[in-house]
Amino acid sequence: MAKEKKSVAKSVKEFYDRHDKLTKLLDNTEIVHSEAFHAGLGVLHGKDGKVDYAMLDDVKNQDKFLDKLMSHYISSAVKSMGLKSAPKDAMEEEIMLKRYVGVTRGELKKILRKAGSDYKLKDHENIRDQLIDQQKAELMPLRHGHMEKKDISDILKHVSADRYVSKDVGIERAASLLDHYRVSGEITPGTLSKLVNTEQKKGGWGDDAYLSKKGKEAVKGLKTQYKKAA
Predict the structure, then answer these.
(1) Cα separation of the two ends of the chain
(2) Higher per-residue pLDDT: 223 or 100
(3) Fewer CB within 10 Å, N- or C-terminus of the chain?
């Protein structure tokens, strides 16, 4: 996290607190995915005691493997959510798994049936990474879910961008400034240039409509410097 100023607005502090909580959640979910796979390997040992992925070509072994994965996912979810016990209803269990690890038994079963012995650690981790990315996209907006339009001034002041950015920038774009500030500890004309020249769907603003006159001049001046340097 970027170094915070001595006086930090309550809404800004909560953004950082939420970021830390969600990051920790996603980091631990990533670990749970890997632990679940290794738990599943317990049923794939051959007579020599070594892991034999060929055993996954047998549907019975696939189901045993799935049982191990699901058992670990469910126990981890119960612990993380502070529940007294696992859901007894199959539907509730699927909902819990979808919320916690982003995948259900049915979805993994389809993948295993198709992959068989080709479902190895690398394949599981590829799926894990996709699931984590999906959860990240869904959860990260919650960091600024508590903010209101009146908090934008505090954000701009916190990141020292109040001279360059209009108060009409909106909460989502203001939150993107907090993200850049959190990583680098400053908002520069280069930061603003990157934001206005990057599409919204890729994390940018897409235009300079939310820059103040000074902000537009700073970005324009930066482009002029680049041209001269070239």
Answers:
(1) 35
(2) 100
(3) C
Using the predicted structure, report yes or no on whether residue 1 has a pLDDT greater than 60: no
Q: Which residue has the tokens 């897409």?
A: 206
Structure tokens at 25: 């959640």
Q: Answer whether 161's CB lies under 8 Å from 178's CB.
A: no
Give the whole-angstrom CA distance, residue 142 versus residue 159. 20
Collapse the DSSP code of 169 into the 3-class scheme (helix H, G, I; strand E, B; otherwise coil) and give the result: helix
Angle among Cα 173, 178, 184 to the nearest 5 degrees reads: 125
180 Cα distance to chain centroid: 16
pTM of the model: 0.83
Q: Closest Cα partner for 65 from 123, 130, 132?
A: 123
The pLDDT mean for the chain works out to 90
Q: CA 175, 25, 126, 40: dihedral to nearest 10 degrees?
A: -170
Task: Output phi, psi for 165, to 5 deg.
Answer: -120, 140
Q: Residue holding tokens 């360059």? A: 164
What single letter denotes the amino acid at residue 133? D
List, as one string, the DSSP characters of 143-186: GGTT--GGGHHHHHHHTT-TTTB-GGG-HHHHHHHHHHHHHHS-
Phi/psi of residue 81, nearest 5 degrees: -85, -5
DSSP state of 165: B
pLDDT digits (tens, 9 = 90+) for 76-93: 999 888 888 888 888 888
